[in-house]
């Protein structure tokens, strides 16, 4: 079972570079989300989507873009990387329904120099 | 104001003992859900247990139970018969509103649990 797949697992960027973190799920889940995890701060929501073609901002959206052209994929784009975006990024998905837990990918550890 | 508060940065428990991890929440929405996740040192997020705001009984899943006190806005995780493999970070999270917001979770800062021999 693939579940939620994130690529890459590790990445080092220079300030000002752009890149896309990939997220794919094979469970036909409607909902997908991106979180970042920083030391001592838990996970914070960046962007989320309730279905293909629908996205919205979370708690910390600045510096990030998302799109949801298919149910399976939800890429996160860093437009111009900054050291403050050094973090561990998690993608999650869940099916429709209020009690459904989110299924998380294994995370992408991103360092911005 | 913090929506999810976990006041215990770290906890120790002896193997085979029970331990309670605290979580308080803040919401004015009558419909909400509370989740607990485990994050071992390998980094993945593992769903443990869920409690809905309208659920009459406390949730249980194997050795995990949720002590839900709605009036006090607390949703503490109880782990019975602790095992060495329970050593991890534990996060409490809340989803507010109806099903359409199921993709939005607010997390606490976590509690690091260490199980000792």
Summary?
The complex is a heterodimer of chains A (113) and B (117). Chain A has 113 residues and is mostly beta strands.
Could you walk me through the main structural features you see in this protein, from its secondary elements to its overall organization?
The complex is a heterodimer of chains A (113) and B (117). Chain A is mainly β and 113 residues long. Chain A has no helices and eleven strands. In chain A, strand 9 (87-94) and strand 10 (103-104) form a beta hairpin. Chain A starts with a strand and ends with a strand. The mean pLDDT of chain A is 93. Chain B is globular and about 40 Å long. Chain B starts with a strand and ends with a strand. Chain B contains no helices and twelve strands. In chain B, the strands form three sheets. In chain B, strands 2, 5, 6, 10, 11 and 12 form a six-stranded mixed beta sheet that branches. Chain B has a four-stranded antiparallel beta sheet with strand order 3-9-8-7, with no helix packed on it. Chain B is an all-beta fold and 117 residues long. The mean pLDDT of chain B is 92. Chain B has strands at residues 4-5, 10-14, 19-21, 24-25, 32-39, 46-52, 60-61, 64-69, 74-79, 88-96, 106-107, 111-116. Helix content of chain B is 0%, strand content 50%. The interface between A and B is medium-sized, with 30 and 26 residues.
